[in-house]
């Protein structure tokens, strides 16, 4: 299982996380800041979530292996 | 493959070693780090690190246990000095010769100095964490002088002079203004940043700096530096203007760190020349700021100095090293922050373009625009655009009809 932490103050709103893992991430309408849809996504989404964390240009996503 | 050596331990190098492990590479992984710090994130250096909002530990890209859990032989403060393609070895600054089965070059950039730039206290360039810490220390001294001048105990602070109004120069100018320092921003162009963000957004950006109190000197360059006992005391511009200052920041671009590859046989031309698979020679790959690669869709050789590009290219190069054989097709993205404003661009803005405003109006606090050439959208840009920039990024490569973008 993985657990996701997001840091809104670091987010720059590039939208890479939404492209990599749309089941887990969304963006707010006005400032584009990341919205976490599920903190404990199922294992089949783990790879796309790790990709999202790597692609984030602002280190705003941390994936914890639990 | 038994041993992969990654030279360069910043964003591209770290992403590559992480990806190699994730993709199942179980052999020996050596990471050559030319700096004295573990790899850190560079975009905050000109912003939150310079202003003091973020400290050193907050910019580290990986926790210290990363190197242990991923079984990475991390050689800190170690340089690669040469590559022997036939013997498949690299030489290190320590004299050690290291054999490899796969090699990834991610040695990045260093700042380009001005011609005849002197070595003086107060003359700064900005690339590394240590550069940012040194510049911040000088800026804080200037701030103290300003405060004591109000109290009448010293003769006051001087403006800091920033030479070059590209991304870095503009960000440093904004940070220094927000710290309360006087800033003079010097650039040889009529309209700085036009190449990067287009004329309309560049004009708005320069007006923003002037509105915030930055003294912007366009079509000017620095012709000489003045000093007093090794400390910078002023600069003279090419029109003869003399500016007393204790701090100059030279932000006129960068040079690729490829000297160690000079006689290796690896092709070099504006960085390490790679094919569409990020491969420079058999078993030798490159990624990040140092890598020039053949864009498979656009058919042009290009080298990008953007943060997200370094991650994506390192992931692609690492996977190709392990045999994925996937051409690296990327849509360039960058953002830049200054004052309360963020500019974001997907794609590359061509020199000649037709601009279409997609949402909002030019000059407003939020808007987005498309830049097309020959009827095709080549880039989209947002000024405080929020999530809209991501939504409109899909327009890049699509037709633009009669000045109206066909969604």
CATH superfamily of the largest domain in chain B: FAD/NAD(P)-binding domain
Biggest sheet architecture of chain A: 2 strands, antiparallel
What quaternary form is this?
Answer: heterodimer
Determine the most extensive contact between two protein chains. A-B, 20 and 25 residues
CATH class of the largest domain in chain B: Alpha Beta
Cα end-to-end separation of chain B: 47 Å
Task: Please describe what this structure looks like.
The complex is a heterodimer of chains A (66) and B (407). Chain A is 23% helix and 24% strand. Chain A has 66 residues and is an alpha+beta fold. In chain A, strands 1-4 form a two-stranded antiparallel ribbon. In chain A, a hairpin with a 6-residue loop joins β2 and β3 (34-36). Chain A is globular. The relative contact order of chain A is 0.37. Chain B contains 8 helices and 29 strands. The radius of gyration of chain B is 23 Å and the shape is globular. In chain B, a hairpin with a 6-residue loop joins β21 (291-294) and β22 (301-302). Chain B folds into 3 domains: 3-111 and 254-321, FAD/NAD(P)-binding domain, CATH 3.50.50.60; 123-250, 3-Layer(bba) Sandwich (FAD/NAD(P)-binding domain), CATH 3.50.50; 340-395, no CATH class. The termini of chain B are far apart. Chain B has a 6-stranded mixed β-sheet. A 5-stranded parallel β-sheet of chain B has the order 9-16-10-11-12, covered by helices on one side. Chain B has a 5-stranded antiparallel β-sheet with strand order 23-24-27-26-25. Helices cover 23% and strands 31% of the residues of chain B. The mean pLDDT of chain B is 94. The A-B interface holds A 12-16, 18-19, 27-32, 50-51, 54-55, 57-59 and B 15, 18-19, 22, 41, 43, 61, 307-308, 311-312, 315, 333, 335, 337, 342, 344, 385-391, 393.
């Amino acid at each position: 299982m993985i657990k996701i932490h997001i840091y809104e103050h670091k987010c720059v709103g590039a939208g890479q996380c939404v492209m990599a893992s749309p089941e887990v991430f969304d963006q707010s309408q006005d400032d584009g800041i990341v919205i976490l849809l599920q903190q404990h996504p199922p294992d089949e989404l783990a790879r796309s979530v790790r990709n999202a964390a790597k692609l984030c240009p602002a280190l705003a996503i941390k994936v914890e292996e639990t | 493959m038994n041993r992969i050596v990654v030279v360069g331990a910043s964003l591209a190098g770290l992403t590559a070693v992480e990806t190699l492990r994730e993709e199942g590479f179980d052999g020996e992984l050596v990471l050559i780090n030319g700096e004295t710090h573990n790899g850190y994130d560079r975009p905050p250096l000109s912003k939150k690190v310079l202003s003091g909002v973020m400290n050193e530990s907050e910019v580290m890209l990986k926790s210290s246990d990363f190197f242990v859990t991923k079984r990475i032989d991390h050689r800190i403060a170690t340089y690669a000095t040469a590559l022997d393609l036939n013997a498949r070895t690299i030489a290190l600054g320590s004299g050690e010769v290291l054999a490899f089965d796969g090699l990834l070059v991610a040695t990045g950039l260093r700042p380009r100095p001005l011609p005849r730039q002197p070595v003086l206290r107060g003359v700064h360039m900005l690339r590394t964490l240590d550069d940012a810490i040194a510049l911040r220390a000088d800026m804080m001294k200037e701030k103290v002088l300003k405060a004591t001048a109000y109290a009448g105990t010293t003769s006051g602070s001087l403006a800091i002079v920033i030479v070059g109004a590209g991304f870095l120069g503009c960000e440093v100018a904004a940070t220094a203004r927000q710290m309360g320092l006087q800033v003079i921003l010097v650039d040889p162009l009529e309209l700085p940043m036009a190449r990067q963000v287009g004329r309309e957004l560049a004009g708005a950006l320069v007006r923003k700096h002037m509105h915030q109190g930055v003294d912007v000197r366009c079509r000017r360059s620095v012709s000489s530096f003045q000093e007093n006992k090794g400390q910078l005391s002023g600069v003279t511009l090419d029109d003869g203007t003399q500016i007393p200052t204790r701090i100059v920041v030279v932000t006129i671009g960068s040079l690729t760190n490829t000297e160690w590859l000079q006689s290796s046989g690896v092709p070099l031309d504006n960085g390490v020349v790679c094919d569409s698979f990020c491969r420079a020679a058999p078993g030798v790959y490159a990624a990040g700021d140092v890598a020039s690669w053949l864009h498979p869709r656009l058919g042009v050789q290009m080298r990008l100095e953007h943060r997200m590009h370094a991650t994506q290219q390192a992931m692609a190069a690492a996977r190709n090293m392990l045999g994925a054989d996937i051409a690296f097709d990327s849509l360039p993205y960058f953002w830049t922050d200054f004052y309360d404003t963020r500019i974001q661009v997907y794609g590359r803005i061509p020199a000649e373009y037709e601009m279409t405003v997609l949402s909002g109006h030019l000059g407003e606090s939020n808007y987005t625009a498309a830049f097309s050439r020959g009827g095709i959208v080549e880039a989209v840009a947002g000024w405080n655009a929020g999530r809209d920039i991501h939504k409109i990024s899909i327009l890049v490569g699509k037709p633009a009809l009669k000045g109206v973008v066909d969604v």
